[in-house]
Amino acid sequence: MASKDYYSVLGVPKTASEKDVKRAYRKLAREHHPDRHPGDKKAEERFKEINEAYEVLGDAEKRRKYDQFGSRFQEWERMSGAPGGFGFGQQGGVRFEDLGDLESMLGGSGFSDIFGSLFGSGAGRGRRTTARVRGQDVEQNVEVSLEEAYRGARVTFDKSGKQLEVKVPPGVKTGSRIRVAGEGGAGAGNAPSGDLYLVVNVRPHPRFKREGDDLLLDLPVDLYTAVLGGEAQVPTLDATLSLKIPPETQDGRTFKLRGQGMPHLRDPQVHGDLLVKIRIRIPQNLSAEEKKLFAELARLRPR
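The chain above was modelled as a monomer; its predicted structure follows.
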């Protein structure tokens, strides 16, 4: 059976980066998703083919084996430990059971060369070797302020005596995960290390509340401005804006300032909105003259 060209399936070159592979997969998966083509068997098969390709090319270790042996490396792996296949002895040796035409299936390469390439030099020549096992991924919490989540920031922390500086992109939320490649647990047998994932916690802000990419703000406004109209100064995370308050504005009325919220994580040029809720301040410590005027106002407006 011919080896499948997963790079052609995703429409990317062999030199494509992990990011390019993921981007191509997402685009094709959306385009050919069965929900968009109900009853279309060709679209369904194409979707399966796209997922099969990404399952290999989206995994660094599988991609390495695929680049070396083609898509049939999975057939070889599936035979491990199965009846009529092969498996590992208790002491790390190898036992062979009716391998059949395994060598021709793998393209004519000697079994010793194939096994050695996958599990370390010398494995096929009867020498005991350490299996190549990728290091574990690890997580670490990192805390940022709302301002840092708004503008983006660089955080520095110590990892086993090593100082790491990581860029926190604008728009991160509590629970966002930032991948730092190769900074996880060490691999075995010269295998690559795992990745470090920083789990973000955005500290609560004393003035702003966040809902998705929108920000909410309670804005105190004096009674006279609320009744007669005027302007109020609205703080944002990077400036102060003037808001026109119409006459007879009621307590709790909300004004939307478009584009003054948090940046979108995927597109920092696009922002959410700032929702400003008016909170009317009632004057205190009134003088005798002020109380008299309020009494007159109450008389003029029957209840």
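The longest strand covers residues 214-222.
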